[in-house]
Amino acid sequence: MYYFFTQTCFEVPDYRELHKSLNIPLTVIWGKHDEILVWKDIEEEVRKNFPIGESDIHILDAKHFIQEEEPERIVEIISGL
Question: Which uninterrupted H or E stretch holds 49?
Answer without folding.
Answer: helix 39-49
